[in-house]
């Protein structure tokens, strides 16, 4: 039995020991400035009828059956792998019992599952490959989308609701959510490019003075030009509120970075908190907090 766990430890050591590195993303992967509780939002849908529920049930049952088959297939594959391992090592497992083969099979099944999960997490989704092809951090961007009030026929506020009752989702009057999110994705790339080239004047256009001080200090820790490229990025509004003086938005970004020189990839999991002074005409939206 000790030999079995020795082999298991060796396999895990070889599989998971790798040099650690990360892309140097905007803000250094740290949290700065203001922070708010956030939650996803969903569009309100009419209640489903019994007929629709009945139509959905067969598909659900098929998915459950498929899941069970996949689990049993994986277990059988793990058992087969365990038997093959026992046969391969021969004398090292002389006198091995059926229970030992079973344990080896379960271990092999878990390892295969872990490898499959890791490969899936590192791969780029098919839907984003065309957008990534030929992408350059210096490509022209739509200017100052963050800095304008998006008032091109706003989304109805009653169409969306936060999934957490403690998180507000009150859009400012005339706010066009889709237009703003489209612009925010482009500006995410712009700000990351400015961070790469230490272009603090460009970053200054997008952030509050207090946040800028923190970012200047953080960027000073990095030597020279950085090479972090945004492979793809999506944006989601996860908080919105306003009063007579101030409007607030929180945007959650998700996607993938890549260091062009080291080949290191990293997930994008950032939330930016923005504010706009409603008392000042044409005031810009400024980032007041970064939540990594």
Low-confidence stretches: 13-21, 123-143, 149-157
Structural class: alpha+beta
How confident overall, as mean pLDDT?
Answer: 74
Tell me the major beta sheet.
Answer: 5 strands, antiparallel
- Helix segment tally: 7
Instruction: Classify the beta-strand content into a percent band.
Output: 15-25%
Number of strands: 7
Distance between the termini: 44 Å
Rg, Cα atoms, Å: 25 Å
List the helices and strands in order: HEEHHHEHHHEEEE
Query: What global shape is seen?
Result: globular
Q: What are the key terms here?
A:
single chain, 292 residues, alpha+beta, five-stranded antiparallel sheet, two-stranded antiparallel sheet
In short:
The protein is α+β, with helices and mostly antiparallel strands.
Give a written overview of the molecule.
It is a single chain. The protein has 292 residues and is of the alpha+beta class. It is built from seven helices and seven strands, in the order αββαααβαααββββ. It has helices at 2-16, 50-89, 98-122, 126-132, 177-196, 200-204, 209-219, and strands spanning 32-33, 41-43, 160-162, 228-242, 246-259, 265-277, 286-291. The strands form two sheets. A five-stranded antiparallel β-sheet has the order 1-7-6-5-4. Strands 2-3 form a two-stranded antiparallel ribbon. β4 (228-242) and β5 (246-259) form a beta hairpin. The longest helix has 40 residues, at 50-89. It starts with a helix and ends with a strand.
